[in-house]
Amino acid sequence: MNNLTILSSLAGGALIGLSAALLLFTHKHTAGISGIAAGILPPWRAGTAGWRWWFLAGLLASAPLYRLSGAGIPLELDASPGILAIAGLLVGYGTRLGGGCTSGHGVCGIARLSVRSIVATLTFMLVAGITVFIVRHLI
Q1: Using one digit for the tens of pLDDT, what is the confidence trace for 44-101?
Q2: What is the 3-state secondary structure (H, E, C) of 29-82?
Q3: pLDDT tens digits for 123-138?
Q4: Which residues contact residue 65 at a Cβ distance below 8 angstroms, ignoring those fewer than 6 apart?
Q5: Domain of 117?
Q6: Which of 21, 23, 89, 105 is such that its CA lies 20 to 30 A from the CA of 82?
């Protein structure tokens, strides 16, 4: 691991924390991506669609903007688009089943010392580790 990776990771983590805190203090909402995205789907939550669209637009724009900055770390995917689509659907299902996602539980919930979020995040990480082991060593 080099210093650029460490600094990029530190800066990214600080920006995630800052955005979560700003959303909490300005709109009194937790920065859980699955909850934010669900709020723009019918039935709409009155008066909340505007900031949700801006939050999601910023989230989607961040990767291309980072790449354009020239500081991007090369990205290589070992999976096909079909596998990635299936993985995305499974993650979406898991967020509904778990009552939130890694950003809501892992970033915001743990910061609030929520036992539910701590247990959920430990479960996410354990299942992710087991999945990576199975995919890389057993399949």
Answers
A1: 767 778 888 988 898 889 878 877 877 666 667 788 889 888 988 888 788 877 788 8
A2: CCCCHHHHHHCCCCCCCCCCHHHHHHHHHHHHHHHHHHHHCCCCCCCCCCCCHH
A3: 989 988 998 899 889 8
A4: none
A5: 3-138
A6: 105
